[in-house]
Prior knowledge:
By secondary structure, the protein is of the alpha+beta class. It has one domain (22-160): HIT-like (HIT family, subunit A, 2-Layer Sandwich). It has helices at residues 10-13, 23-29, 75-96, 147-160, and strands at 38-41, 45-49, 59-63, 100-104, 121-126. The protein has a 5-stranded antiparallel sheet, with helices on both faces. The chain is globular. Residues 23-133 form the HIT domain. One of its GO terms (molecular function) is ATP:ADP adenylyltransferase activity.
Amino acid sequence: MNHIWTPWRMKYIQGDAAERACAFCLAAEREDGQENLVFHRGENLFMILNRYPYTSGHMMCVPFLHVSKLDDLTSEARCELMELVAKAVRVLSDVYKPEGFNVGMNLGSVAGAGIADHLHMHIVPRWGGDTSFISILSGTRVVPESLEVTYQKVKEAWERVD
């Protein structure tokens, strides 16, 4: 039997009740930086790297408001969501030069939402032949870059790219 060690997940697994609260609400309350992974705050939404990415650069656009339905956002927030997603695609194109993107939401736990109660949109860069989007071998993904390095690249590009 092969073992894959992920000791950094123990903090999440054994966290206290506050740590098991909505991860997005907690991220919205904390200071931006590599530890929090929030790299931009808009009026109604913020941008955050996915702590368990499918690929390097996997980010999410998250409303500050804890809602699970698109209709619960104001029209201004829905417009801002799409503007931030469009900028995220430009930033990731600049930093990683992907050949395509997966952009979308999993609305509800049956649709695959890991955090179903707090709406969020994924922006995932893709390359021809990549195997990291879907785990194909023993539930394993290969992400070739640390979150700290990804954070620095994305944060710098976010401030530079229009």
